[in-house]
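Dear support,

I submitted the protein below through the web form. The confirmation email said the job was done, but the results page showed an empty box. After a refresh the structure appeared. I'm attaching both so you can tell me whether what I see now is the final result or a partial one.
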Amino acid sequence: MRSQRLVSCLLLLQGKRRLTARELAGRLEVSMRTVYRDVDALCQSGVPIHMERGPRGGIVLADDYRRALAQFTSDELQSLLAAGPGPMTDVGIRSQPQALQKLAGALPAEQRRAAEASRNRLLLDHNRWSRGEQPAPLLVRLRKASELDRRVRMTYRDRGGAESERRIDPLGLVAKAGIWYLVAREDEKGFRTFRADRIVEIVELSETFARPADFDLAAHWNASVASIESAPESTYDVVMRVRRDALPRVTSFWKAVTLETDEETSTLRIAFPSREIAIAHLLVMGDASSIVSPPELTAAIVECAAATLERFAPARA
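What the results page shows now:
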């Protein structure tokens, strides 16, 4: 996109002040004619760029403008450079290392050294533990359909495993803790949110849709989250003792409050969505956990385990 190329051109000149049209063309992977058009566009937008002729000439960015661009505080640099590879790679955007390299190259030497030191001391990993495989090929296609305002026919699997076909207008994608969601408008049902890992297949249709003029993805998502979090939630609370090395297998999925901790275990209060889910999860935990309360849950797990053995043991013999 031209806007991205103009920013890249500006950052390259910020880093070196003077570059020839041939050097810029090589770094931006465009023709010299395109470079001249881009420089003219930057000049028309008010960026102080000029041409210097002669053997040491080139395209030059004014010193005062370069210094203004480079005035980052330490906190600003950390916020820009601390993020590690995140969910954006799932939708086909893998340009973060190049973008950070361009930014670092545009900094004065002292700030560049501080930026490198900061990257070795602070890292943000946006993905939760055991987030599961995200459907990257589908996400890439959904992103493009959203950018082109292209209607989509989607096969979707609900929580119970039932599949249905839907015609939707893909308005945007949201990653929450590394899990992707599709915000869309469905015929006669209004705005809907779908988990991307439950999308079985999509078919981009030839027809386009008119995006709502007042739709704001961030505002819509924040309102949805607030509505969900404010709604009363019925849970099945369990107090359990968990081995320290097995904690991520619990805390990555369920709301947990730590009640006490020793060298080997932590005692947690877990808010499971239901009694059945609590039984299933504790069976999977095996000897990595034990139940403190409610006492009736232990008998229920034993009963469930016995029924499972009775059903599958003959098939294993």
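Response: this is the final, complete result; the empty box was a page-load delay. The two ends are 63 Å apart (CA to CA).
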